[in-house]
Design a protein that fits this description.
Rossmann fold, five-stranded parallel sheet
Length: 124
């Protein structure tokens, strides 16, 4: 399963990647870590991506709008929102997000998210 990570904070991106790699999930492949949301849209236009971990608070475009645009190009894309702010939770689930994780990301919480993903994507 091909995953992308989108967050404007490099430290947050690295931490998320570290936590996902720590799980050692056999078929999870992180194909890109992006700080620019528009790069994520371009990537989804031209590359098969199964899941996107998206920070909601991004510059220029918020993560909800980013997910909407990405879903236009890949309706099967599974989305996990990550943010320090809980106020967007309902809006995030309106997009059928797999999960909504509040920062700081805990390994146990991310593990539950990966379990949810495995229920939705049978190949996991």
């Amino acid at each position: 399963m091909k995953a992308i990570l989108i967050d404007d904070e490099l430290l947050a991106l690295s931490y998320l990647e570290f936590q996902l790699m720590k799980m050692n999930h056999p078929i999870l492949e992180i194909i890109s870590k992006l700080t620019n949301p528009y790069d994520a849209i371009e990537l989804v236009k031209h590359t098969k991506v199964d899941i996107a971990f998206i920070d909601i608070e991004l510059p220029e475009i918020n993560g909800i709008e980013l997910a909407e645009r990405m879903l236009e190009y890949n309706p099967d894309l599974k989305v996990v929102f990550i943010t320090a702010n809980q106020e967007y939770a309902v809006e995030g689930f309106d997009l059928n997000a797999i999960d909504y994780i509040v920062k700081p990301i805990r390994f146990e919480r991310l593990s539950k998210t990966m379990h949810r993903i495995s229920e939705v994507i049978p190949s996991m």
